[in-house]
Amino acid sequence: MNKYEFMFIVKATMENEMVKKTAENMKNIIAENNGKIIEFKEMGERKLAYPIKKEINGYYFVMQLEATKDAIKELDRKASIDETIIRHLIIKLNEE
């Protein structure tokens, strides 16, 4: 398994419970695909540098995880089709 960093931004116009549920859904995708979450940070609501899908604020989340390529593909697919996530980025971390 490789180490990755997954950052995603959730719409700030949603209720707080829905924001938490979206974050939990992303965690569950990793768990279902035999991945392991090393660190999970909730960065809170921040102003976006530019409007994305007419949103000017978003809730930022960052997680470091260990997962297989298939798990990362599934995570990317689910994050892409989730309408509550306005942006996401997955970065493979170098092994030291």
Taken from the alpha-carbon principal axes, the silhouette is globular
Query: Treating each run of at least 4 consecutive H or I residues as one helix, how many helices?
Result: 2
Uncertain runs are: none
- Give, in order, the helices and strands: EHEEHE
Percent in helix:
25-40%
Would you tell me the structural class of the helices and strands? alpha+beta
Which architecture of one domain does the CATH hierarchy give at level 2? 2-Layer Sandwich
Strand order, sheet with most strands? 2-3-1-4
Strand content: over 45%
Q: Major beta sheet, specifics?
A: 4 strands, antiparallel
CATH superfamily of one domain: Ribosomal protein S6/Translation elongation factor EF1B
| Top CATH class of one domain | Alpha Beta
Terminal Cα separation, in Å? 14 Å
Mean pLDDT: 92
Might you state the CATH topology name of one domain?
Answer: Alpha-Beta Plaits
Using only C-alpha atoms, the radius of gyration works out to 13 Å
| Tally of strands | 4
